[in-house]
Specification:
The chain starts with 10 loop residues before the first helix and ends in a 6-residue tail after the last helix. The chain has a nine-stranded mixed β-sheet, with helices on both faces. Strands 6-7 form a two-stranded antiparallel ribbon. The protein is built from eight helices and 13 strands. The protein has one domain: 3-Layer(aba) Sandwich (Glutaconate Coenzyme A-transferase), CATH 3.40.1080.10. By secondary structure, it is of the alpha/beta class. Helix 2 links the parallel strand 1 and strand 2. The protein is globular, with a radius of gyration of 17 Å. It comes from PS1 clade bacterium. It holds the Pfam family CoA_trans. InterPro entries: CoA_trans_fam_I (IPR004165), NagB/RpiA_transferase-like (IPR037171).
């Protein structure tokens, strides 16, 4: 696949491409459904063939060949190295044997708190969603957490309507230290840019080639300085493999 302009590539593909680049060097990944699954499969197909994909339904060594709409989809079980149960895979996570987790959500705030429960008040929501499943456990326990989100301003807020999966911030970080939990979200990937976590919340780390600083922060409610890092350029192996993933 030849890329003349990254803006010509679909939103989901851009997110998956950037995220796949960040999975180089990892051995095991606890995978959320949707874009996180697509990104993990793309990484395994292109730049990190030894990446072990783990799903909360109990599939270990998975490599779905078709679109998966839930963690219980037959496509996840097909071809897996091992089919166990949720208790077993979350036990592995709690024991610290899984390197990285990929999640998405309906809302995210400056400190990486995720909402996949309700839009509006909990008692009288505008929308009630199905979250979290295992997302809360992944967010609490995994040592490295990447959040994948399409650049839709309504998803990015100062305060999430409900904390389904905890992020960072002084109070949460104290609890993480006290109970020896994972360090929280370290990276936020959109279809336009990459953000990293600091004590003050997300900062803009780098921007996908062909997108401007204005594109990267459009509609986001946080103060974000222009980064000094070079633009994100995706590995050619990932680009060559992108059309084989059903995005």
């Amino acid at each position: 696949m030849k890329v003349n302009n990254y803006k010509d590539i679909s939103i989901n593909k851009r997110i998956a491409m950037i995220a796949a680049s960040e999975l180089i060097g990892y051995q095991s990944c606890f995978v959320g459904i949707g874009i996180p699954s697509d990104a993990a499969c793309l990484a395994k197909l292109s730049v990190e063939p030894n990446l072990n994909l783990i799903y909360e339904s109990g599939a270990i060594g998975a490599f779905p060949q078709t679109k998966s709409y839930s963690t219980g989809s037959p496509s996840i079980a097909f071809g897996s190295d091992m089919i166990t149960d949720s208790f077993s895979v979350f036990s592995e996570l709690q024991a610290g044997r899984i390197d990285v987790g990929l999640l998405s959500a309906a809302q995210i705030d400056k400190f990486g708190n995720l909402n996949s429960t309700v839009i509006g008040s909990y008692d009288e929501p505008k929308v009630r969603m199905v979250g979290s499943g295992g997302a809360h456990d992944i967010a609490c326990l995994v040592p490295n957490l990447f959040i994948l989100m399409p650049h839709e301003p309504r998803r990015f807020v100062n305060d999430v309507d409900f904390i389904t999966s905890p992020g960072s911030g002084s109070e949460i970080d104290q609890l993480r230290d006290k109970y020896k939990l994972g360090s929280g979200p370290s990276m936020l990937i959109t279809d336009r840019a990459k953000f990293k976590m600091s004590p003050d919340g997300w900062y803009l780390h780098s921007i996908l080639q062909d997108f401007s600083y204005e594109d990267a922060i459009e509609g986001l409610p946080w103060e974000l300085k222009k980064p000094s890092n070079n633009p994100i350029i995706v590995d050619s192996k990932i680009i060559d493999s992108i059309d084989t993933i059903n995005l």
